[in-house]
Design a protein that fits this description.
This protein is of the alpha/beta class and 233 residues long. The chain has 2 domains: 2-92, no CATH class; 112-223, Metallo-beta-lactamase, Chain A (4-Layer Sandwich), CATH 3.60.15.10. 32% of the residues lie in helices and 12% in strands. It is built from 7 helices and 7 strands, in the order H-H-H-H-H-E-E-E-E-E-H-E-H-E. The protein has helices spanning 2-15, 35-46, 50-62, 74-80, 86-92, 177-187, 202-212; strands spanning 112-115, 118-123, 141-144, 149-151, 165-169, 191-195, 222-223.
């Protein structure tokens, strides 16, 4: 992954070099695009988040190619990139901080594992389609404790197993409330908890809940949880 991050960052720097003057519009008001707009367009072209490309661009700008260490991860380079003094930064990479513990390996449909006493099975394959021009990354859902809870990720994939509580995404560029209703009817959970609703206003959240809930299209109780709320499963 590190090599890809360096390539993306270098490409972003080539498109829009880091500048010590002029802010977002360094060449004045006659510039066709601001720096942010140009970087955002590049992010859209490669199908990645703007924040990810912006981060890679900054890290690349802080590390000339001849100063990068192939045996040190991009993440460590990013951490050390915040050192203001250039010489101190270049010396620090020769004695980098210890690597973080390895992350759990990626999982795929059909896998099963445990987290503490909780059993987890993996379902699904791909992210829901946003648009034909937008690549679909991998996406999996997780079924906990033999159906106690199912989180589908960014897709309406129905697991071939009973589900008691379904976490139901209701906002985002890929979601569709009509498809969400059909999805709930297919899964047939005992109850629904609305998630992935950050892009909705309070009125939008309640409207979605009314449409998808017990008195709406699914006939199944739906919960709206405020931040920090806990529920018993």
């Amino acid at each position: 992954m590190s090599s890809a991050q360096w390539r993306l960052g270098d490409a972003a720097v080539e498109i829009e070099p880091m500048r010590s003057y002029g802010g977002a519009n360094p060449f004045g008001k006659d510039d066709l695009f601001t720096v942010g707009e140009a970087v955002r367009m590049f992010a859209e072209d490669v199908g990645l988040a703007y924040t990810a490309i912006r981060s890679c661009r900054w890290v690349s700008s802080r590390w000339p190619k001849e100063r990068r260490r192939a045996d040190v991860s991009h993440t460590i380079h990013k951490i050390l990139a915040g050192i203001p003094d250039e010489q101190e930064r270049f010396e620090a990479v020769t004695n980098p901080p210890p690597a973080q513990p390895a992350r759990r390996p990626a999982v795929a449909a059909g896998d099963a594992f445990t987290v503490g006493s909780i059993s987890v099975t993996v379902h699904g394959h791909r992210h829901a389609l946003i648009h034909a021009d937008v690549p679909c990354p991998d996406n999996v859902g997780h079924l906990l404790d033999d159906g106690t809870l199912y989180h589908p990720g960014d897709a309406y994939f129905a697991p071939d197993a009973p589900v008691r509580t379904l976490l139901l995404p209701t906002s985002g560029p890929w979601t569709n409330l009509g498809e969400a209703a059909d999805y709930v009817r297919t899964v047939k959970p005992e109850r629904i908890v609305q998630i992935h609703e950050l892009m909705l206003s309070d009125l939008g959240r309640r409207s979605a809940a009314h449409l998808l809930g017990e008195k709406g299209l699914t006939g199944i109780p739906i919960s709206l949880l405020e931040s920090g709320t806990t529920v018993q499963l």
